[in-house]
């Protein structure tokens, strides 16, 4: 756990200790409305290239179905660098949570062509539930 403070959450999300990462994500999820949206935007601006932070931001937006940040889900799903594959899994589930049917073709492509089995499996599961 970490305090529900912007700097603490940011520091924990980019930490290499998984427990601290989870704590940062948990604290981010506990934030209220506009403050949470602003922090998501700030962290995305500063740390989107960090694959761990990328994953946690994608997961939080999807898990909490934050419609105002649906574009973040779209960006994560479209990312092709291998280090971001976990983010693509979180993004596929986020598409389901947010009802982003505009991403269905990409999810179908990944369900057929993804090299990593967990991504392929996830996309197949998401497609079944999107239908």
Regions with little confidence, pLDDT below 50 for 5+ residues? none
Rounded to the nearest angstrom, the distance between the terminal CA atoms is 38 Å
The SSE string, one letter per element, is: HHHHHHHH
Q: Residue share in helices? A: over 70%
Strand content: under 5%
| Total beta strand runs | 0
Commentary on this structure:
With 131 residues, this protein is mainly α. It has one domain. It is 73% helix and 0% strand. The termini are far apart. The model has no long low-confidence stretch (mean pLDDT 96).
Give me the secondary-structure topology.
Blueprint: H1 6-13, H2 18-30, H3 33-47, H4 51-63, H5 70-78, H6 85-98, H7 104-113, H8 117-130
Helix pairs in contact: 1-2, 2-4, 3-4, 4-5, 4-6, 5-6, 6-8, 7-8
Keywords:
mainly alpha, 73% helix
Short description:
This protein is mostly helical. The chain has 8 helices and no strands.
């Amino acid at each position: 756990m970490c305090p529900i403070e912007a700097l603490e959450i940011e520091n924990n999300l980019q930490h290499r200790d998984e427990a601290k990462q989870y704590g940062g994500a948990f604290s981010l999820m506990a934030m209220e409305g506009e403050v949470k949206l602003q922090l998501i935007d700030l962290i995305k601006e500063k740390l989107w290239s960090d694959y761990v932070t990328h994953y946690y931001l994608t997961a939080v937006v999807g898990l909490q179905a934050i419609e105002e940040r649906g574009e973040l889900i779209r960006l994560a799903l479209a990312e092709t660098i291998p280090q971001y594959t976990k983010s693509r899994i979180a993004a596929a589930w986020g598409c389901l949570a947010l009802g982003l049917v505009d991403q269905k073709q990409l999810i179908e492509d990944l369900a057929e062509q993804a090299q990593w089995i967990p991504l392929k499996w996830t996309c197949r599961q998401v497609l079944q539930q999107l239908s």
